[in-house]
Design brief:
heterotrimer, A mainly beta, B mainly alpha, C mainly beta, B: Cytochrome Bc1 Complex, Chain D, domain 2, 3-stranded mixed sheet, two-stranded antiparallel ribbon, 11 helices, 7 strands, about 5% strand, globular, C: mainly beta, Immunoglobulin-like, 5-stranded mixed sheet, 3-stranded antiparallel sheet, about 55% strand, elongated
Chain lengths: ~160, ~260, ~100
């Protein structure tokens, strides 16, 4: 099998986040679209997923895939009758499709969460919101991940 | 491997003919911060979102903790770091009379541990050493770098400059080929910076942790496929000293955030 | 472990306030191998909870795709003076807490 660029960089570049233990990140399986679909269905069940209401702020060109800032916000009045119950974020190509589940309530005031995530490669990120009426809304973003030019030391 | 050819070609294209090594004039010196995107800048700008500050917090705790057989804390001699350590990191590496050579801030912390606290040295890149140097470094935030001015340091600055200009590794590149001659261009997708050491120890997104300038220098060296010098080696100290003198006047940013 | 918490110290009743938290954790994915081929076991924070005067106002399930030293920002309505309590729970019995106070006028 020819060595792809990503595999090469993983081999050459993945040494020591832990300092003393040299670690080679042989990235294993990527999450396949089937895994992504399964992970989403796991949350959503058979309910239809509509597009809209959800906004995903993520840099289209990421400086380093190891720490990518992400903000998800949902258009909602956040009242007792109409609020966002949860926000779920997924990815397409990491070894595992889940990124995070975030649970809100009317007292949140604003349906918005931010965190920092890892993206192993250029890929799609999906955010899904579950509203208080149990409808699901989603948005998808394509993210290009730049790889570091210089590799870490080969200890 | 096609990737190897691609990177070799990319480097040839970037470097091109006529490898003139020129030092960067004072008014053109720019921190690595100015090469970053808005998201990474935002991460550094706000202390409560800068993960390097977690290490500064740990360092503050360690500063006040007694250690070693002498039963002393850093604070017992140096008092409140916010005043006693202000500007110190901007002057390091500094000449040590007893050793007759420059020592880095990390080495100074370990000398203090050995001589005054009778404690065992902290390993390079260990969490405690990074935390202490981040805490001390943080007290110099905003203060212009003045390291390397001591005349006794001159031969060591010169040694560092020679190393910076010297081609090495299988890619046969010197630091200067990228960081003096080709900053503002790109290597693969990443911008080439001026290699100004304004924010060490810094939080590198690639590392997902804080790291020293020596770790950064070593990863550049493996980037050009050279044998990296050992942590604490005279070569790495000389390079750090030269880089700090080359950054004269730029304000300290410790703990910086970099991609 | 060190944690950085950003909560406004004062707010007006009914204000929507932002809460930001950053905590030290390696977030080892469980997908990496050492140079000699051994799998580095997963060691992550799996759950975060924020309580406001005892009642849960925000909760998160975290996965290995969350970056090291997890950062979370979220919102709540300032309803009364009191205390925010934060709790991180993870693999290998990991548990860490922090708190912050707010005065609501």
């Amino acid at each position: 099998m020819p060595t792809t660029r990503r595999q090469f960089l993983s081999l050459a570049g993945g040494v020591t986040a832990a300092g003393t233990i040299p670690i080679v990140t042989l990235r294993p399986l990527e999450a396949t679209p089937a895994m992504l679909t399964a992970a989403i269905r796991n949350v959503v069940g058979e309910a239809p997923i509509r597009t809209g209401k959800v906004k995903l702020d993520i840099p289209p060109l990421v400086e380093n895939g190891n720490t990518v800032p992400v903000t998800v916000s949902v258009t909602s009045p956040m009242t007792a009758d109409d609020y966002v119950k949860s926000i779920h974020v997924f990815n397409e190509k990491n070894p595992q499709p889940n990124i995070g589940n975030f649970y809100l309530n009317p007292a949140s005031g604003r349906a918005q969460v931010s965190t920092r995530i890892r993206l192993a490669d250029t890929q799609k990120v999906v955010a899904i919101a579950r509203l208080s009426d149990d409808t699901f809304w989603q948005v998808t973003a394509d993210v290009v991940v730049t790889l570091a030019a210089c590799t870490e030391e080969m200890n | 491997m096609t990737f190897w050819r691609a990177i070799a070609t990319a480097i040839l294209l970037v470097i091109g003919p006529g490898l003139l090594a020129g030092e960067i004039p004072a008014d053109a010196r720019r921190s690595g911060y100015s090469f970053m995107g808005p998201d990474t800048r935002a991460m550094q700008d706000d202390d409560t979102s800068n993960p390097g500050m977690l290490f500064v917090l740990d360092g503050e705790t360690l500063w006040g903790r007694t250690m070693g057989d002498a039963g002393k804390a850093c604070a017992d001699c140096h008092g409140d770091a916010r005043s006693s350590m202000k500007g110190v990191a901007a002057r390091y590496p500094a000449f040590d009379k007893a050793l007759a050579r420059p020592v880095t801030l990390d080495q100074r912390i370990n000398l203090c541990r050995a001589n005054h606290q009778q404690a065992t040295p902290l390993a390079y890149e260990s969490r405690d050493l990074l935390a202490l140097s981040a805490y001390v470094g943080h007290q110099s935030r905003g203060i212009p770098i003045t390291a390397g001015g001591d005349p006794q340091l001159k031969p060591f600055v010169d040694q560092g400059r020679d190393l910076f200009m010297q081609r090495e590794g299988q890619l046969n590149l010197a630091c200067t080929n990228c960081h003096d001659d080709n900053y503002d261009k790109r290597l693969a997708g990443a911008p080439i910076t001026q290699a100004q050491p304004t924010g060490y120890p810094l939080y590198r997104l690639e590392w997902q942790t804080l790291g020293s300038i020596e770790r950064r220098l070593r990863s550049c060296m493996s980037g050009v496929r050279a044998q990296a010098y050992d942590y604490g080696s005279p070569e790495l100290v000389a390079l750090e000293l030269y880089l700090m003198s080359r950054a004269h006047g730029l304000p300290m940013e410790t703990p910086a955030v970099r991609p | 472990m060190a944690a950085l918490i950003n909560v406004p110290t004062k707010a007006k009743r009914g204000d929507i306030i932002e809460i930001r938290t950053l905590t030290s954790h390696i977030m080892e994915t469980g997908f990496r191998h050492t140079a000699d081929g051994r799998l580095v076991p997963r060691d992550i924070i799996t759950s975060f909870t924020c309580r406001y005067n005892g009642s849960e106002i925000f909760r998160a399930d975290l996965f290995p795709a969350i970056a090291a030293n997890p950062y979370l920002s979220f919102f709540t309505v300032a309803k009364e003076s009191g205390k925010f309590e934060f709790e991180w729970i993870g693999d290998n019995g990991y548990s860490s807490t922090a708190s912050a106070s707010i005065t609501v006028e």
